[in-house]
Every structure is written in structure tokens, then in C-alpha cells.
TrEMBL record, chain A:
Enzyme Commission code(s) on record: 6.2.1.5
One Pfam family per UniProt: Ligase_CoA
Pathway info: Carbohydrate metabolism; tricarboxylic acid cycle; succinate from succinyl-CoA (ligase route): step 1/1
Domain CoA-binding: 4-100
HAMAP family per record: Succ_CoA_alpha
InterPro entries named among the record's database cross-references: Cit_synth/succinyl-CoA_lig_AS (IPR017440), Citrt_syn/SCS-alpha_CS (IPR033847), CoA-bd (IPR003781), CoA_lig_alpha (IPR005810), NAD(P)-bd_dom_sf (IPR036291), SUCC_ACL_C (IPR005811), Succinyl-CoA_synth-like (IPR016102)
Similarity remark: Belongs to the succinate/malate CoA ligase alpha subunit family.
Keyword Nucleotide-binding: yes
Entry GO MF terms: acetate-CoA ligase (ADP-forming) activity; nucleotide binding; succinate-CoA ligase (ADP-forming) activity; succinate-CoA ligase (GDP-forming) activity
Record gene name: sucD
Lineage: Archaea, Methanobacteriati, Methanobacteriota, Stenosarchaea group, Halobacteria
Protein name as it appears in the record: Succinate--CoA ligase [ADP-forming] subunit alpha
TrEMBL record, chain B:
UniProt entry keywords in alphabetical sequence: ATP-binding, Ligase, Magnesium, Metal-binding, Nucleotide-binding, Tricarboxylic acid cycle
Quaternary data: Heterotetramer of two alpha and two beta subunits.
Protein name per Swiss-Prot or TrEMBL: Succinate--CoA ligase [ADP-forming] subunit beta
Cofactor(s) demanded: Mg(2+)
Cofactor binding: number and manner: Binds 1 Mg(2+) ion per subunit.
Transmembrane segments: none
Family: Belongs to the succinate/malate CoA ligase beta subunit family.
Organism: Salinigranum rubrum
Chain residues that bind Mg(2+): N191, D205
Amino acid sequence: MSILVDDDTRVVVQGITGGEGSFHTEQMMEYGTNVVAGAVPGKGGQEVKGVPVYDTVHDAVSEEDADASVIFVPPAFAADAMFEALDTSLDLVVAITEGVPTQDMAKVYRRLNETDTHLIGPNCPGIITPGEAKLGILPGNIFSDGNVGLVSRSGTLTYQVVDNLTQRGIGQTTAIGIGGDPIIGTSFVDALELFEADTETEAVVMCGEIGGEDEEQAAKFIAENMDTPVAGFIAGRTAPPGKRMGHAGAIVSGSGTGTAESKIEALNDAGTPVGDTPEEVADHIEHFLS
Amino acid sequence: MRLHEYQAKDVFADAGIPVPDSRLASSVDEVVAAVEDIGFPAAIKAQVHVGGRGKAGGIKIATSEEEAREYADDILGMDLKGYTVDRVLVEAGVDFEDELYVGVTMDRGEGRPVAMVSEKGGVNIEEVAAEEPEAIAREHIDPAFGMHPYQARKAVYGAGIDRDIARQVSSILTTLYDLWEDKDASDAEINPLMVTSDREVIAADAVLNVDDDALFRHPDLAEMEDEAAGDELEAKANKYGFDYVRLSGNVGIIGNGAGLVMTTLDLVDYYGGEPANFLDIGGGAKAERVTNALDMVFSDPNVDSVVFNIFGGITRGDEVAKGINEALEAFDEIPKPVVVRLAGTNAKEGMEILNTELVQVEETLEDAVQRAVENAKEVSQ
């Protein structure tokens, strides 16, 4: 079992003719993802890696019966690409693009709330259901299928924690990188809700970081709504206030909210253990499963 | 990107927000010439990117030419929380009765902008927000429509602003929102918005922070970026295009991906060391970028040891290894011990080409960090 994607998911790649788009289309297809179309304005009629390209997402969806899209479009055009995807009846849109202006995302987020689509990202590695499909840039070889769900704000930290799990023989149902930007489509709470409803997911790893209050909201959700055990990790304990640490969202405000301490405390209060190291997170998961 | 007060005030004034008459000056003589133009009292304000300038001695009010000369001499060249003051804004002093606050920012929790108004301006607004949140009226804005005039009025009346100036404050708030949107700002604030004895309002300070990710749409604002205003190493990192933050410890850290680099910092701290920096080489880094990253970290005199932590997704381990080799082979003697941990895409190929005579290799993140912390302790002894 899995959430959001499986081997039936039919994927459109927006920006398939670009360097990243074509490279990762090939990688996704090698992994087994059912990539059925590309969408690039002005490039309709071409083929990339054997996949037909359409001028609009609408055409791609109606001609190839797609139900998901993955976006590899430069930041200046990414919001428009997300609007276009949301204007079709796709179940899932994954925006990989890094550096989308925050005000653009506020408008996309506003539109998203009028639809039934799940948007993951932007500025994220994507989503993978090991052994079935991946939408995004995650390195497939470190994942293995199993019964642990994973949701994370950081791409490479996802890989690190998955590696810690896989090395111990603990596989994953689905792993989602939700992205580290201030405004994103799918939040921790959205992902946790999906994992809670998935009968195969027996434990969840949640990797957060400094900035914002999404982890605190997640803690509240875990305490009130979840039977599936969750283990956490929070990056940025040593970050100085007022400095942006790479991710647009990873900045500690001066007023004490959004700090690693406040997030760890909220999670602990919700009964969610937080590892000091990725290895400790795997210890907690191992304990839950035993 | 944060604009200086004088830059933000130019932007605000262009949009129609009233600001005091002012001149920028970078020498005592220029300050004296400016006060002759503007008259007394005149505020002399350090133009550096730090908060709390007034308390730190960076803002003084001169009532005579002698005072102007004396204060200019005090402030120009002073060290303000690590920044050297090389420019001051000389500004007409405002005879005020009240100090208000107006601001627009992104409420990331709500995913939409929020406009704020308070009677309690002129002080640290974060403290007001924490201690008496009811003193700040907030109005969330639908980004699809922008701010409706009624919303500005609602916030202004909600904050208990006097009726005789409510119209002026509403108009300034509407202008501030439009400007915030137009400039792709993350924050636009006026604190204090002064109310004069003639019941006019005027922006005595101006804060404008612009979303770095949107600068491509604003070449005019991008040009205002003041590279000299930061740390020397941070300026260098900017040139190389790295996400870099300088810290106070002695373990240099290089990695890929913000979350993983932050985690590496945290583990250095966890194992008893102190991080010297945050340096994210980003995704898909090629050899040259890796060489530049090592150059960055080695040029920090505080660094006693270096840990390289790469988990490849887009980034390929063999490219990284090539970069490390190239960077280190240029030295007769490696300046500081380097520990490397490579995992993920092409990590195996990377490990095979890595010159292990120049670096120490560890397989896990935990081992790599512990070794780097030990190295730092040995070197600093």
C-alpha cells in the first residue's frame, strides 16, 4: 500500500524538454513510473524518451488520461505551471522547482484551496512509493518497500534518514519531501493524515526544521488524531536567530517561535520522540515496529 | 535582501508615503553641509543592517552645528554589532505627539499576507506582539484581490487610531500593501509612523525586505544590494553563489542540501564541537563548485578542521570527489584536516577516485562528524 502514488499513477511531466525535465523523466521511467506525456508550450508533437509532448497540460491530460503531473519549470514560470496543472482535474501535482517567489506561491495556495488536487512542493525532491513509482528527483536505489511512512521538509535529509532505515532492513510505504519554502502545498498535517488512513503504514518518520510553525501544528494533530506512532527529527538546533539557512523557510525569528526547541518540545508533548541524530530516529522506529 | 533605511525611504517616497527631508552623508563635512540644508533639529542615523541602532548609539539628534559635527564623528566609522558604519542619513527631526506602527508581511502559517496596525509604535514591535498581541490589529489579505480599502479602515479603527488621522493612516497602509506586493517584499514596515503636532503623519523609519527569489523581477532593487554591508566571507560566498552563514566555532562544514547541512551542524554541536559555518553547495554541484567551497572554508581563519558531507541525489559523488582532489592537490600542504563522507548517487565511484592520502574517509555521517570534531580539538590545542 501507499499514499498518493502507485504503479497505476499516470504522469505528465511539465517542462519535459528541459535538461532537468528530460534527465529525470528517464530516471523516473527507469524506476518504473508510468510517464505518459510531457507538456511544454510550443513543443507539442515532439517526443522525449519516447513520451509524447503536448502544448498544454489540458491536452496531455485528456489525450493520455493522466492523473498526476510533475513540474520541472524554471522559477519565473513555475507558478503559471502550477496554475495550469490546478486547472485540470489532476489528483496530484508535484512541483520540484527551487526558488519560486513567495508571493507567487501565496496566489497558487489560494487557488489550491478551491480544488481537490494535492500539491507537493515547490522546492522539494518529490514523492516515492518504493518499488512502484517516483515523481521527482529522489535517488530510487536507497529506498526499499515496507511499512514506514516518511515526510520531510528537506530533500537530502530525507535521503539520510531513509538510508538509516534501509540499512537496518526497514522499508517504506511512501516517502514525501514536502519542501522547505515558507508556503507549500502539502503540509506535515496533510501527509500525516494520509499516512494515518493508510492501513499498511505502521510508523511514520517526520523530519522538520527551524522556521514557521508547521511542526507545532503537526504535533497537535498527532496528539489528537493519530494512532500510528511517529518519530521526529528537527534540523537547525544550532542555527543563529535571524539568519536564513539555505531554505527560504529555515529562518528563526527573534521572538522564540519557530525554534528547534519549541518544535522538539511540542512533539515530545504529543508523545513523539525526537532523535538527536538520524540514527536515533531509526532506533525509535525499530522500537515501534518490534 | 534587506534595503538600507535610506533606500527603503526612497522607494516609500516614490509610492507617495510622506517621509522627512533627508540627505545621505559619508563624511563629517557632508553631514555639516546636510544639516545646513535641512535645519535643526536633525537626526543622524547610521545606515547598517542591524536592529536597535538607537540603543546602540547609532542614532543621535543634533541641535547645533557643533553637535552635528561631534555626532557625525562619533557615528561614522563606529562598529555597530560587527558592522562598520560608513554612511549616515541626516534627516529633519520631527516634532511628534504619537508614534504608530504599520506593517505588511507574509503570514506563512496562513499562506497569505497580513497587514498590521498598532498605536504602540516607536518600540520593539516584536515585544508588543509577544506581550500584548491585542495591541496590534491584524487584517489578512486575499492575495488574489489585494487589499480592499475597507480592510485598511478596519485595521486602523481596530487599532484605536484617532479619528482625525485615521484617513491618512488608512491611505498609507493601502499604499504600503500595494508597494509590498509590487516589490515582491517579504516585509514592509514603518516604525515609527510619527504623528506631528499638526496632526500629520510621516514615516520616520522604513523597513523593506525583498524576497531574494523574486529579485529577477526587480533589477532596480537588486542593484541596491550592498555587498560591503556584510561579513567579508559572506560577501565572498555571495560571489560564488553559495548559501553560507558564518558562525563562531572552528569546525568548517560543507554539504549538499539545507536540511542535511543543518543536521551536520547540529551533530557537530552534539558531539562536543562548534560549527564554524553553514555552507550548502546546492544540488548537482560540479567539481569547480566543490573547489570553491573548500576555498571558502579554508579562508576562514577560525577553521581548524573540515567535514564534507554529501548525500547524492542530483549531486554525483564522483563529481564531488574530483572537486575535492583538484582543490587539495593544489596545496603543498593541506591547511586543515578534511574528513569526507560520500553517500547516494555515484558514491562508490567517488570513493574510488578520492585521493585518500589527502583526506580522511568515513562511511557514516555520525563517524565523519565525530572525527572532524576530534581533529578540531587536536589542531586547536
